[in-house]
Amino acid sequence: MAPTKAPDSSRRSDRSRRAILDAALALVTEVGYRRTTIEGIAARAGVGKQTIYRWWPSKAAVLMDAFLDLAGRSAEGGAAESDSAGEPGEGEQAPGIPDTGDLVADLKLVLRATVDELNDPVLEAPTRALTAEGIVDAKLGAEFVHKLLDPQLALYVTRLRAAQAAGHVRADVDPRIALELLIGPLMHRWLLRTLPLTHAYADEIVDYAVGGLAPRP
Q1: Cα–Cα–Cα angle for 133, 189, 150, nearest 5°?
Q2: Max alpha carbon distance in the chain (Å)?
Q3: Confidence check: pLDDT of 7 > 70
Q4: How many alpha carbons lie under 13 Å from residue 136 in its C-beta half-sphere?
Q5: Of the candidates 12, 38, 18, the residue with the CA atom closest to the CA atom of residue 27
Q6: Residue 202 CB coordination number (10 Å)
Q7: SS3 109
Q8: pLDDT of residue 109
Q9: What pLDDT does residue 70 have?
Q10: CB 192: neighbour CB atoms within 10 A?
């Protein structure tokens, strides 16, 4: 008789984690953050709630990892599409904010993509949930900034410093403050739903901000 193969516990754990992360995102999207519970996530994922508590201390922590996983998969999907199209090739720019030499065009491209992400139903609910919870939970808020926001903001700093070196932005401009002139209005309108978040609005933000950052005559 052939020996019975032992169950692969690591594979089972991976399946359980994936089911939990997917369940957390689905529930937050369907019923909102407040009505999402550890019990609900466990039932949706087909696991016991103690399985969740073995890996995460709270509902917010589950959602944080679920969102990071979603963002990672989205990035991998974008990279795969670029590879299939033959981009970026040898000598081409790595993923990030493009540097074509036209700062306005580059920033408009990125802010339009940000508008699309914020308006994406798959991303909107968990992003709002994490943002709101991070306001009242300082530890979660710091993790949200460190893991999600800071890496993206660093791309703006890099692009703005390149614009300074090229003479397109004043040398005395602080890139960290300058990027908030771009991101701040976008997030304000999105969070408070004051007016529709559109590509046209993103373009206007760039025009206004870059006008203030440009070298003075």
Answers
A1: 55
A2: 87
A3: no
A4: 5
A5: 38
A6: 24
A7: helix
A8: 96
A9: 83
A10: 8
